[in-house]
Fold each of these.
Amino acid sequence: MNRFLIALIFLFVVSLDLHSQSVSKRIDIEKVFAGHRFSQDGHKLSADEMVMLMRENKEAYAIMRAAKSTSTIASILGGAGGFLIGYPVGSHIAGGEPNWAMAGIGAGLFVVSIPISIKFNRLSKNAVDLYNAGLYEAKLRQGKTEFLLGSTTNGHGVALNF
């Protein structure tokens, strides 16, 4: 009786339609003034969150990591440029002697950060498009697993088709 019960439980567990990973939800893209805004189920996604979401899709993951690197570079250049512009302007407003050369260097850094930010937007949009296309393909493959028990001319058999 004990072996029969174990065999029955084993067949029950094996015959269940189990999936090791759930299919992720798509990432939505919204065009905004300075690029794109990415969200999933209404939650705005940062570049770090997008990198984590795309780990399963190797192509999208590689592109999104490159996009994240360009975003970091653009943020550093833009932040430094903003500081170098803001410090002399603040000195001027406070009545001090501003260093306009510093403001010029800051403006140059800020201008250099613009094409890098554009590259980030392009790369991240490409990564999201690849990720969403991969979800569609995974959804097509999902549910095609088949477990068959039956008798053949050679005896009883088990078949697992996926």
Amino acid sequence: MTTRTIAVVSAGLSNPSSTRLLADRLATATVEALRARGDDATVEVVELREHARGLADDLTTGFANPELQAAIDTVVGADAVIAVTPVFSASYSGLFKTFFDVIDSDALIGTPVLLAATAGTARHSLVVEFAMRPLFAYLRAVPVPTGVFAAGEDWAGGGSTALADRVDRAAGELADTVGGRPAATRPVDPFADPTTSFEELLKGS
């Protein structure tokens, strides 16, 4: 059994916050998905609001304080990252962007990432695709296909079924990527085998 490290980056500003709530649900679902695939997992959470002053100092001085550096090392050294931001002005928050600005642009190359966002209204539901995904494409990370967005109404009555389904699907994709498994089972294409003659393929059909 392999133990995977999952770094959770939460950019929520309040305590508690819907951003942290979504981050915790995604982390729990990912751990369960990894265990179902034969791996174990540990989760390390980075609360960006605790590093707001350190991030500002890093931008102006170019040096991270010990606490911020520990948070950066946690994310850079993880097997996978769950990145969750609240939506401000139709995009990720400034705190979220600043954190990934101070990380070396090559540090997350090839790292599997699950992208998620929260907002008060579903009007912002495309922020994952049109704001977050380009950021992590620039960083050359590997975002899983399913992004998770949660609006205020998704939390009514303990959470909607649709949100729970998205959480489970995204967590499963992250677990597949971390474990080196394909995210989906695809049918084998016999015509893709160059060692089989066309006549043999016809006989097989």
Amino acid sequence: MENSKYKVKKSESEWREQLTPEQYYVCREKGTERPGTGIYDQHFEQGEYHCVACNELLFRSETKFDAGCGWPSFNEPAVSENIDEHRDTSHGMIRTEVVCSNCGAHLGHVFPDGPAPTGLRYCINSVSLNFSPEQE
């Protein structure tokens, strides 16, 4: 994965040391976890979701919704500059890939079938996220 444009720069061996095999597969090799298996799919606690690879803030619980697709879904990023989008034509489909703008970790895809007000559904792999609960 080309990482020269990202602030966080690590070798693939450094990423392999930091991430679990499943996190590496999803975040560095653009894999996908099986639907319905991720810990954050049906997780609705209040807090923030950060990149598992670099801890960049990606999503907030207020924008999370149950899309019924088997992956955590959000209708907008916490900070739009923290997400990069790329055209993805893999697997015979045309989609928009979503990556962390800080380290380039593959997060999932965004689709134009989400709820108002954005109409977007950021379909994100649980293994690419860390959750930080809201402080009481």
